[in-house]
Amino acid sequence: MTEDHENDTVVCILKAIIFVSLGNELPPSAASSKPTLNWNASPDQHYTVIMIDPDAPSRKKPMLRDYLHWVVVDVPGSHLKYGKELVSYMGPHPPSGTGLHRYYFLVYKQSKPVSLEKMARASFDTHRFVDENELGKPIAGNYFQVNKP
C-alpha cells in the first residue's frame, strides 16, 4: 500500500459475514474458505493477488517466510473468479503455540503477463516474484491475524 492511494485497502469478507480490518484477530476457521475480495480496480486492467503468512513457522523464527497461501494472476478488474489461480487457496493453520500469525492480501497492477511457473508454498520469495514480473508496489492490501494456542 502506498501513501498516494486514498482507497488502497482490500475489502476482504470471510464466510460472507466477517470483515478483515487491518490486523484484526480471527479464529482459523473464519478463513477456511476463499474470501471475497474487492479493491479500487480499473475494469480494463489486470491484477495479481497474493496471500502470504510472513510468520511461518513463528513470528520469532520466520524461517519459512513467506508461506504462500494463494496466488491469482490476470484478474480482470476485481473479478477474481476470472483470474488464473496459480496456487490454490489454503486457509490459515499456524502450528499450535507459535503465537499470532499475520495473513496478508496484496494486490498488484500487472504491466505484462505474469510468469506461470510452479511455486513452492514454503519460503516463497514474494519480493523476487514481484520483481521478476515487474509488479511494482502493491496498489492495495489488508491483513488479519490468527493464533492457535
TrEMBL record:
Pfam families assigned: PBP
Protein family according to the UniProt entry: Belongs to the phosphatidylethanolamine-binding protein family.
Name of the protein in question: Phosphatidylethanolamine-binding protein
Originating organism: Strongylus vulgaris
